[in-house]
Amino acid sequence: MKITGGCHCGQITYAAEVDPATVRVCHCTDCQRLTGTAFRTNIPSLPRTFVLKSGTPKIYIKTAESGNKRAHAFCPECGAPIYSAAPEPNPATVGLRVGGIDQRAQFEPPIRQGWCRSALPWSMDLTGVASLSRVRQPGVHTHRCGRPFLLLSTGR
Which domains does the chain have, with CATH numbers? Predict the structure, then answer.
């Protein structure tokens, strides 16, 4: 499948090909820190298909506990993560960050979760979490757990 994507501010854009059935989730503590959230969702590009269309990402080389190094690319302007790859010139494949891909809604559910021992306990099953898309009016509402919350806007 041909895909396009980019960062939040639009400075970095790219194209690639992916297999939409190869989405992966990583729960390692490095991914938690690098994303600022509970896990990272990636999809590998098919070999030699990733092409930067605009911009030049900043590269951060991360060293894992194992000693393996990984190049993490992000937008130098808005900070949005773009991909990770082997720290070498012209790597064969890159792990694209699913959130930056325009066609992400067409991907199949993740096929694999890694580093689950580091996962936040609640992140492994979000099926019972209330969806704000079901809330129609701003105001005070109640979570399924019974705690109240204030919805200021539905974002529409």
Answer: 2-125 (2.170.150.70), 127-156 (no CATH)
